[in-house]
């Protein structure tokens, strides 16, 4: 044991040095590589989650990519608790004071809450554009036209639009006698693109908030839905949800869950205009990164279902990445992306990003107490569920493979014309 004071003084100096290090220029970084993305400043840091929590890395990644323009609707659950240990919060701002705007809603209406944010932003943007046109001559036609025509797909383009908005605000501030100009000043910031994220756990997405989630998927609106799937209601101590796998022991399933995990991705794919991805960063981080970038770029609803190891799985989370790898290799968590933009090009929208199951399901399930404890308590049920779960993963992979192997519309057209 040592007195803390000298250590604290030394660490404070180290911390100040670390904080003074300059951040990289976002527009100069290749964000589509893991190496590049990890150089971006995270705007989610020092959360109160359990050590090794599988949820938080997805949030950190989202803020690295979109944090300075993110608007978050967070369902009640672990993410709302470690996300708001008030009066502190891990959601933070960059040197310009920009960071995610975050709010927490009821468990049962979070998707609608996020949709409301999207609608409000779109309404304010449309109003700002209307006022710009109305005041075009007094503001300056060149600036107004540039503001209205701006593409905002890259960091560079967004940075350029921010500069234009600063110019606009300066000009509007110099027109205090014009009421419409002052009105525009209140919504001018909405001329910079926003990235709306609706976030929560599986209890929210698969169960209690599912009706609302489905409604938002059907709305066609540009929102990104991130499901942090721990396969139980983690925050209240691990109750069974519809995401809980067959044979797992959880609260309300002491004798093992007798039914298979609900396939939320398949339900969402039924809409055809929803971007859907199933990811596990510990198994394939490049696929996770790609999914986040493509989901945000998709001009419609996106759903990312993210495998999130949790203390409720009964495994030392030092091995979090190994567990994700085992889940993917056993077929428990197939990786894929369903991209409506591919269908628009006549291609099959579904792409599998993981191979067929290459290890026995028990090689995965035996490493986690949520499954293995059933061998002691209900050995016969454990044996039955293991066999069924093995069949489940093989059948599910075969089903996805058959869908991914289907020809796209363009292939069918080619075939038809060659048949004629
Ligand atoms: C309608 C309603 N029922 C129950 C609760 C209590 N509750 C708060 S958080 C939570 C668990 C959330 O589980 P999940 O959505 O899976 O997120 P996780 O904690 O696993 O991240 C529950 C049941 C609540 N807040 N509202
Ligand atoms: S209970 Fe699970 S999901 Fe919640 S913070 Fe801990 S590890 Fe993360």
In words, what does this structure look like?
The structure is a single chain. With 420 residues, the protein is α/β, with parallel strands linked by helices. It folds into two domains: 34-114 and 194-404, Rossmann fold (3-Layer(aba) Sandwich), CATH 3.40.50.970; 124-191, no CATH class. 49% of the residues lie in helices and 11% in strands. The protein is built from 19 helices and ten strands. The strands form two sheets. The protein has an eight-stranded mixed sheet, sandwiched between helices. Strands 5-6 form a two-stranded antiparallel sheet. Helix 4 (78-82) links the parallel strand 1 (70-75) and strand 2 (101-105). Helix 5 packs parallel to helix 11 (210-219), helix 8 packs antiparallel against helix 9 and helix 17 (369-377) runs antiparallel to helix 18. The longest helix has 26 residues, at 379-404. It is globular, with a radius of gyration of 24 Å. The protein starts with a helix and ends with a helix. The model has no long low-confidence stretch (mean pLDDT 96). The structure holds thiamine diphosphate (TPP) and iron/sulfur cluster (SF4). Iron/sulfur cluster (SF4) binds at residues 49-50, 53, 55, 78, 82, 230, 234-235, 310-312.
